[in-house]
Amino acid sequence: MPCNLYCGCNRRYDMAIQLPKRVIRDRTMVQLFKDGRTLESIGDEFGLSRERVRQILVERGICSGQGGQALRTRRKKESVRYCEVSDCGRKTKGESKYCHWHKEQIENYGSFKCLVKGCDTPSLKYGMCNNHGTNFFINRQRGNVEDLNDYLKVQLAKVLMGKVKPTFVELRKFMKDNPEQFEKDLFTENVHG
Predict the structure, then answer these.
(1) Does 165 map to a domain?
(2) Per the domain annotation, does 59 fall within a domain?
(3) Domain range for residue 46?
(4) Phi then psi for 167, rounded to 5 degrees?
(5) For residue 103, is it within any domain?
(6) Rounded distance, CA 122 to CA 135, Å?
(7) Radius of gyration of the chain (CA)
(8) Which ranges form a coiled coil (predicted)?
(9) Average pLDDT, whole number, for the chain?
(10) Taking the model in full, what pTM does it have?
(11) 91: which strand partners?
(12) Residues 74 and 120 grouped into a single domain
């Protein structure tokens, strides 16, 4: 059947045959787009420009947010996992429950709690809460404590003495008078005990 009375071509007939192929192609394009393929990659596959692919998708009622790059970005955001420690907010790597920082804490210290006996504050660095960690580093710089184990013994002495703010001289004297309570390695006992 000619496309009009004055034309001798069979264009309308050709379009009727081509219609199902085009419908199949358009549906395939829509599916590829919804699977996250970009307009350019779909156009390369079908020999069309990126703009023509976009126009075909619009004709089929598909907007840019329903697939392509937007979908891939959305999927990427959904796949990000965050550390399970409350108030952390750091991203995890792989299948880990914890961020790299908390994972290191668990491996090195066995928990997220401060190593100092009686302190239930979450640890921040080196197995101690912010207060005890700062106190440890200041006292180590001043020469009041030798290492973490010594610091933990000093903290235990404070608790056992029951005095509000004992001096280091008083603490060392108390530790010397009661050696049986300070013989063991408190760091190893707190971490692995």
Answers:
(1) yes
(2) yes
(3) 11-78
(4) -80, 165
(5) no
(6) 16
(7) 35
(8) none
(9) 78
(10) 0.44
(11) 82
(12) no
